[in-house]
Amino acid sequence: MSKKRVVVGMSGGVDSSVAAYLLKEAGYEVIGVTMQIWQSEEEQVLEENGGCCGLQAVEDARRVAGMLDIPYYVMNFREEFQKKVIDYFMAEYLAGRTPNPCIACNRYVKWESLLHRSMEIGADYIATGHYARVEQLPNGRYSIRNSVTAAKDQTYALYNLTQEQLSRTLMPIGAYTKDEVRQIAQRIGLRVASKPDSMEICFVPDQDYAGFIQDHSGREIPEGNFVTSDGTVVGRHKGITHYTVGQRKGLNLSLGRPVFVLEIRPETNEVVVGDNQEVFSDRLLCNHLNFMSIPDLEGEKEVTAKIRYNHRGAKAVVRRLDQDLAEVVFEEPVRAVTPGQAVVFYDGEYVAGGGTILR
Question: What is the pTM of this model?
Fold first, then answer.
């Protein structure tokens, strides 16, 4: 029987490099691929230590592939990345929401586009260096399971993958801790063994989101009013793209007490602020639903719900309201429910599903 062929998405970091090594050791025919997503050569991020998409990433990944003696290619996904990630990112901020570009990139670029291209070259699977595990459950469905290390769990950003995508996905490092992955890299002599993780949004290297949107959207972002919940004007804001729900720093308001962003209203160009207790809510609505460990949601289900990447999760009940609308009611109020972010439902260690927070 011929060896199964797997395309490994290689970012030049230690995680994807060790993923490629583990799969080769397990007997797969491994092909390394770096996804070129930058929109112009001048915008390449030449970071020494970070970035999963710059020139340095390509050089590091090529060197690793050479050491592992596997074929290596750079595939151009600029068009898909522009449309599915950058355009979405800007549109969401302009609509007063806070997007999660990594989730969009995973679903539509790293999986949909890379998987399609990989199948065209005869691959059986694609693989990544995510700290998560893919498992087929007794009910026949595929689900993402938490990695063995809570400190480096990346399941939240993967909730939107389809059953077809999961059935063709391998995540070999979900069974290891970060320290163990670095130790493997050192043992086999990879230069990227101690390379720091890339934490920020890769296409906004200076993290000035509002500046990026101003420069790339062709839209003028006007100033407007800060208001309280009862409509009282308390100051001027720099433009709605500068703010997100729960934010306290950078508001430059002198009200004699700390205030936080409660809501962004693009239709009136207002940013609503209030006291800390007003940032808490006990329920949310979500749409763009995707189910993973369960085929669908009938009635209601008790889950642990995470409302942002670094949220520990909170006990909640999710119930279906419509074809693509669900309500999540929390046992205890949670802080800063943010429209545009994902809410992910966990059933024990497994992702049951998730959606995009509406309000």
Answer: 0.90
